[in-house]
Amino acid sequence: MKVLFSTLVFVLFALNIWAQQGENNFTLYTITNQQVEPASRILEYPKIIDSVKAAAVKEYPLMFFQAETKILLDTIQAATVETSEQLAKLYPFYVKAGIGSVLMPLGEIYYTSDRSRNMHYGAHIKHLSSFGDIKDRSKTLYAPAQYDRTSANAYFGLNERNYQFKVNATYSNNGFHYYGIPVDTITIAADSIAQRFQLAKGSAEYTWLRGDSAKLNLAFIANYHFFNALPDDSAQLWRSSENNFSFKTKAWYNYKNEYFYADLGLRSNYYKRGILDSVYTAADTGFVTNNYIIDFKPGVWTQALGDKLKVELGVVITADISKTGTVPYVYPNAEFKYALFNNIFIPYIGLRGGLKQNTLQGLTQVNPFIRTNVALRNEHNQYDIYGGFKGSLSKTLSFNLGVHFMHIENKTFFVTDTNFLYDNYLTVIYDTLNQTTFEGSMTYQAAEKLKIDVLGRYNLYQLYHNAFAWNLPDLQFTARGAYNLYGKFYAQLDANVEIGRKALVDATAPNVQFEGTQAYVDLGTIVDVNLGLEYRYTPRISVFLQANNLAAQRYNRWYSYPVQPFQVMGGVTARF
């Protein structure tokens, strides 16, 4: 307290002196007793003390709650698992045997190899014959119409990574009669109208596969056939024979969106009509016809606009070589397709042409009742302009609508040969044809259970020298259907309707009509419906029933050649 008082007196005195400093200066000495407290060191570091302090966060422990779990067991129906082999077992032999209502025996036997990675081979033999008679729509009996058809085939194939090799050989023997003669008042010996066709043909193909892209691939294809037309009657000394050979080299190359190809081929045909086992002279009516055709076909397929547009551009250069000289031809080969609405609707247009080599064997495949000493001319299809729309209406329904405009020189037509007494032979004539065809088709397929195809065509013909396109229909309708029920019952139905066919005949023929100076008859409408049924008792054994010509129409497929009416054939098949 004493120290505090002394200090206060000293301060007041000092202030007084400072206040009077301007006027007087003096010095004051005094004696005091002052004590200095001992010093102490602050050991803490400086720090900022915040006036706002964070409140401490309290921690609460998590609450744990365990609910009781209830398990309820219920019964369900046991699942069934169907086990089967991944691949069905193959049986090398297949046999089919049956008999028809007009004494028609049928027999077929097939042999094929088992599963193999790179090799397949097989063979089959077929036979069908008929011993029945044929009548026309007025129930008039015709000449003997028995026939027999036997064929044998063998094949072999080898598939390797870099190449493929295939060979095929076939022999067929077809005996029949030119039965187009009504026999109400006359008798015709079967041997006098008998004919037999023999065909031996083979093919070989080698394909060199070097890759799918930016690699050149090659294929070599050779075909040969020998055809012999020999009357069964030994008194008939004349026969016709034919040797046909063709060879083709194919090359193709894929690069990005382009597919380049080039085909080079040779076709040759040697056709002879002569005396059996003899060398005929110039005085005989025999002849020999040689024909060679060289083809060169380069082109390219390309895609654009996201693969929606597909274009083919190419050309076919052909040389027709015969004893009368060499005739060159140049044919266009182009097609344009564009996919709309994700390939649902595809319009297309194209232009094509080509030279078809007519052979005796090819003509008899279409009409076996022709004379075998015919003049052969190659069919010159100068152009075929076509276009239309195709697409799919759903996953199961597809369609196609199109039109064709064709110009064909040396178009083949079959007409009655009036040089024979009974008009039971047909021959070949040629004419230039302009043809317009409107066609539409629709296909319905529901998995493997049901499939239906329907096709309709309407044809318009214009010929240079004939009034009509003989034996060709103005309107054609075709339908096919197949049904599979539980893999046990199978049914197939096909129908064919043709309207507007006409035949060129002699002026004295019954029901004849005239168009200018040409006499013709209306062949009527063809309505041919066939039904096939099969029941598979086991995967290896089945029975079948085939009913042909359900409408029982004795229509004329060719003039004076009515077909057999309603027929039924039944039999069994077996695999082992």
Primary descriptors:
mainly beta; single chain; globular; 22-stranded antiparallel barrel; two-stranded antiparallel ribbon; 576 residues
Strand content: over 45%
* Rg over C-alpha atoms, rounded to the nearest angstrom: 49 Å
What gross morphology would you assign?
globular
Q: Main beta sheet, described?
A: 22 strands, antiparallel, barrel
Low-confidence stretches: 17-24, 279-284
Q: How many distinct beta strands?
A: 25
| Series of secondary-structure elements, N-terminal to C-terminal | HEEEEEEEEEEEEEHEEEEEEEEEEEE
Put simply, the count of helices is 2
Structural class: mainly beta
What would the average pLDDT be, to the nearest integer?
86
Cα-to-Cα separation, first versus last residue: 138 Å
Question: Could you explain how this protein is built, in words?
Answer:
The protein has a 22-stranded antiparallel barrel. The chain has a two-stranded antiparallel ribbon with strand order 23-24. The termini are far apart. The chain is globular. The model is unreliable at 17-24 and 279-284 (pLDDT under 50). The chain has 576 residues and is mainly β. The chain has helices at 2-19, 360-366, and strands spanning 93-100, 104-112, 119-130, 147-159, 163-177, 194-208, 216-230, 238-255, 258-275, 287-304, 309-322, 325-338, 345-356, 379-392, 397-416, 426-446, 450-463, 475-485, 489-504, 513-515, 518-536, 541-548, 556-558, 561-562, 567-575.
